From TrEMBL:
This is Dystonin. Pfam families: Spectrin. SUPFAM superfamilies: Spectrin repeat (SSF46966). InterPro entries: Plakin, Spectrin_repeat. The gene is DST. One of its GO terms (cellular component) is cytoplasm. GO terms for molecular function: microtubule binding; structural molecule activity. One of its GO terms (biological process) is wound healing.
């Protein structure tokens, strides 16, 4: 009977160690994804806030040709910046989805 209990204890111990190791690997993996998510999200969120504020505070559309050309030029620069940031948005969404998948 003692031998059986020792064997059972050893098996339970090994199972516990394996579960603990698996949990550790899972936590480490999630940590990496979480860091990537926040490293992408925080600057993107700051940029979005600043850009939204800039657009809200834009001058009224001008009626003079030179003013309109200036506004169009500025808006083209904004459009370019928006397109450049798209990959960051996609990365943040992808990292967020991966994080959700790993934590639910």
């Amino acid at each position: 009977k003692v031998a059986k209990e020792i064997e059972c204890l050893g098996q339970r111990w090994d199972a516990l160690l394996k579960k603990a190791e698996n949990r550790h690997k899972q936590l480490e993996s999630i940590l990496v994804v979480t860091q990537q998510f926040h490293e992408t999200l925080e600057p993107l969120s700051e940029w979005l806030t600043a850009t939204e504020k800039h657009l809200s505070n834009s001058e009224p559309i001008g009626t003079e040709t030179s003013k309109l050309e200036d506004q169009i030029s500025q808006h083209k620069m904004l459009q370019s910046d928006i397109e450049v940031r798209k990959k960051n948005v996609d990365r943040a969404i992808s990292n967020g989805m991966e994080l959700l998948k790993q934590t639910t």
